[in-house]
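Lab manual, section 2.4: Encoding a predicted structure.

Procedure: take the sequence of the chain (765 residues), apply the prediction step described in section 2.3, and record the output as structure tokens. A sample record is shown.
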Amino acid sequence: MNDPKTYPPGTPFSGTIRRTARDSTPAWPVGKQAKPGAPNVFIVLLDDVGFAQIGCFGADIGTPTFDRLAAGGLRYRDFHTTAICSPTRACLLTGRNHHSNGVGIIQEMATGYPGYNGMIPRENGFLSEMLLDAGYATFAIGKWHLTLASEYAAGASKARWPLARGFERFYGFLGGKSSQWAPALVHDNHYIDPPRTPEEGYHFNADMADRAIEYITDLRAVAPDKPFFLYYCPGAGHAPHHVEPDWIERYRGRFDKGWDRWREEVFARQLASGIVPPETRLPPRPPYVPEWDSLGADAKRLYARQMEVYAAFLEQTDHHIGRVVDFMARIGEFDNTLILAASDNGASSEGGVHGSFNELQFPNRVEATVAQNLAHLDSWGGVTSYPNYAWGWAWAGNTPLRRWKRFLHQGGMSDPLIVHWPKGIRAHGEVRGQYTHVVDVTPTVLEALGLEAPALLNGVQQRPLEGVSFAHSFDKASAPTRKKVQYYEMIGSRALWCDGWKAVVEQPQGVELTEEMLAAQRWELYHVDGDFSESEDLADKHPDKLAELVKLWWVEAEKYNVLPLDARMQARMGERKPGAAGTDTRRVYYPGAAPQLEYTAINLKNRSHSIVAEVEIPEAGAEGVLLAHGSWFAGYSLYVKDRRLHYVHNYLGLAEYKISSGETIPPGAHLLSFRFTRTGEYRGTGALFVDDRQVGEGEIPRTVPAVIETAGEGLCCGYDSGLPVTPDYKAPFRFTGRIARVVVEVETPAQTDNEARLRQALNDH
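Recorded output:
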């Protein structure tokens, strides 16, 4: 039987039509088909994993999957990112620079300028859209973070969700980070509950691998030869560092030596393996990182445990990625799958000098202490923790590079990259030294597949790619980089690489820049071709070269929408985003809706307010949540239990203030209310009412000042999503009576704490 006749969609029908079907010839509009034997594409993008934190780049952390890929493929030691999350992901998926995409900063800090509005234009097509058009199946799993924060809500626009940008299936989370035990999961275009609870053994890394294998299995059942693009983005090693206890036990005592000695040992392995050039020097420890030997016994015990958990989290992540790789091998597709594995920026310092058991303390201006953290040491990494490590480990994790995430010295934006493709790359186990950037990934994939970037995509004329392919280096170690120049900008800090030289200036954050300030700033200059770790500032020795690079930076800034420079961190956080909820003082919620997140939920913080639930209680009684926002790391909940009305305010997991009714609620229709009266900064009194009768009251001496959510624990009506606000009930604790609606009203103006919101953003991404 002959194959059916086809023609490209949008072109004239290629069959024939007569008066009867017998005399006519059918034809089908069918899109492009991939070339026979076209390889699959599997991109793994880790989060906050430093240059030296996987085994094949010098670490003693167990990463057998990455090590296996490196042994059978290539390691690129001079690969660079934008130094932070959303911009890197925008560059990777489009082949255009982050400001050209409008993603010059994380989505939560978007502002109303073309380089920073967070709205990737249709003229900048995604790799997923290009490959879908070329006949590929396209899947995205894990972290997204390319949607405006004001559009995370289920009822918001889906224009910047994954399915709108060329992915046929999506399973993951939209924001910058997520609990591994209870993530705010999105399946395609809707929120879902995780398939199991932590008590039942759920972990997001395992779930990710399950979904990846499921998607490939589904595809092969109907299209045995169709290639796929799998974009796979774990939350690891971003905080929270969540992992099962048996993984942690593998590392007990392994980091007691401390970060100074660990860094020296890593550097020795890097030199021996050739992952850094032989002339590389190890810069001294900066003064803001404490010397390990100067620490007390308690601090050493705390910090060592933090790194044990991080290392365990990373190895467990590697294990589940290995399950996907092994599945590809079992079905015979491993050798013809182009795999690229990288990190989105350098290791993260957001844990601060001591690390943190509950990351929500940082944006709410509660600084973690050694003693406070030690009280939770045994549960570090578990479901009752939301932890991050001390920044000494981030510094060591970027060995031998300076600084860390968000900064434009090498430690912020130099990252590991592994490329593996047995059928397409003859070389294996080798190190490549070509200068590459994340914006070069899409051009490289296209060249490797024998495809060109389309001039027209989904009916939209496309802008030229701004990255350059490094596919020519796959089989030729001596091939020069095709890169001529690469600019960088991050929160006002600037850098530029050109022909082996790098100029950089770090901008203090939280100030309003002036022309006079810009003129007074001192740039540094490094010849990074011979000084991999930026150990010697040559600005005074080569002022003409520095002036040349600084001038070129301004040319690139004009070209790629970098201006205006903006270091006003608090103001950027406070700027209204399109689609964000208004500043109205009244909101009505109906039961069962998907959680409303921080940018769309009504803001009750430090404001007098009332919550009134219109309910009907059946004769047998009812129980459950009326309105809740947050989790046991911070939040509030109004609920019914044991026929009584209760309100709990959870202050950052440090204290729980509970008010309970002194009498039971009779059957019938009622107004169940809570009223908060502000009596001072972040404190007040609370009262419970059944209809017009007060049935309980109490002091709430400390309230959450700025940030309630950890990662997607949004405001819920009629249930409590994810982890519960209080251990007094088990989530979701759905209300078993009938809720007509819940009306929330505030009496005092919102007092936006932009400094706290800034802290949240830096902590989240």
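Check your result against the sample. The two ends are 56 Å apart (CA to CA).
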